[in-house]
Amino acid sequence: MMTTKRRPDRRLLIPVMGIALVLLLVLLRPVSLARPETQSPAQDRWVGYYMIYRPIDNWDFGQNWETYGDTQILNAQLQDNGRYAFTELDGQALFFDFLPPTDPEDSYSAVVAFQSDAAEVVHNANITESGTTETLSGVLYFGAPATPALSQQDYIWTACLVYQREDGSLYLTRGQSYGGGGFTIKQETKYASTTNGTTTQDALSVKLRMEMIPRVESCTFFQLDENGTLLDQSTLTEAEALALTDGSYQIPLAEGTACILIRQDEERDGTTYTTLSPQADGSFTGDLWFLDERGVGIQISVQAD
Q1: Is the pTM of this model over 0.70?
Q2: DSSP state string for the chain
Q3: Residues 134-187: pLDDT tens digits?
Q4: HEC string of 85-126?
Q5: Taking a C-beta distance cutoff of 8 angstroms, is the pair 92, 118 a contact?
Q6: CA 90, CA 58: separation in Å to the nearest integer?
């Protein structure tokens, strides 16, 4: 008996091959994977200034700038305490620093802090139903550099603009530069914020006054009794002041001291005198300003008790 091989039904085979081909094309088709949302400069908030006192020919501050969107930036470094600071760039800060809520379930527990190397800092918050206006102001003192070959015209200030991302990180961009004498800069920015479903129009304002001071070579402290008789005296030189690691200078207080007369011997402008009067507890406190080698003001707190 002869047997014949049955051929597969081509009517069935062709549709099956077509379905397999479609599945293969789908599997081989490039798939666009979900990517985390990236931040851009347009989403970030201006928060203040970082002042750089630099030689006039040092435009890049000796740093490697990064590209962020279309902007050249320098990022701040994350510190052990969870906050950010510009530790790799020597400068003077005056800017807001918005900290995350201390209670993740309570958005109102967020803290509006600030970073400052300025003197006479004032921070105010004006809260209304329509929003909150935060203002910050201060003073930076500066003067002639110590290097004889250089003059104040060889250095300029650059007011770098500081921005904060939503994740709390900070960065700066180059700002306007200023030469010559003292000056004042101020900027205000407005933005919308939403807390617990309520949107408000808030504002930030930062004002910084730059004031020139003479270079002080030494300060002599005369302790006088109520009759003006000299009880004791001591002298703090420029080198000694700049070597103080904590920025404080302690004077042993002589018994019977009614006031302390301070003589400041200045490099070019002669001599000036100021007086410290006793506090309610009988101690004496005050602040003095010396200039470092570049000409940036260094605050020294004086105390006698």
Answers
A1: yes
A2: ----PPPP-HHHHHHHHHHHHHHHHHHHS------PPPP-GGG-EEEEEEEEEEETT-TTTT---EEETTEEEEEPEEPTTS-EE-TTS--EEEEEEEEPPSSTT-GGG-EEEEEE--EEEEEEEEE-SS-EEEEEEEEEEE---S-TT--GGGEEEEEEEEEE-TTS-EEEE---EE-SS-EEEEEEEEEEEEETTEEEEEEEEEEEEEEE-PPEEEEEEEEE-TT--EEEEEEEEHHHHHT-SSSEEEEPPPTT--EEEEEEEETTTEEEEEEE---TTS-EEEEEEEE-TTSBEEEEEEEE-
A3: 999 999 999 888 876 566 667 889 999 999 999 999 999 999 999 878 999 999
A4: ECCCCCCEEEEEEEECCCCCCCHHHCEEEEEECCEEEEEEEE
A5: yes
A6: 13
Quote the tokens at residue 68.
């962020």
| Residue type at position 288 | L
Backbone angles phi, psi at 244, to 5 degrees: -70, 115
Cα 89 to Cα 73, 74, 171, distances in angstroms: 12, 9, 11
Q: How many CA atoms lie within 13 A of 173 on its CB side?
A: 16
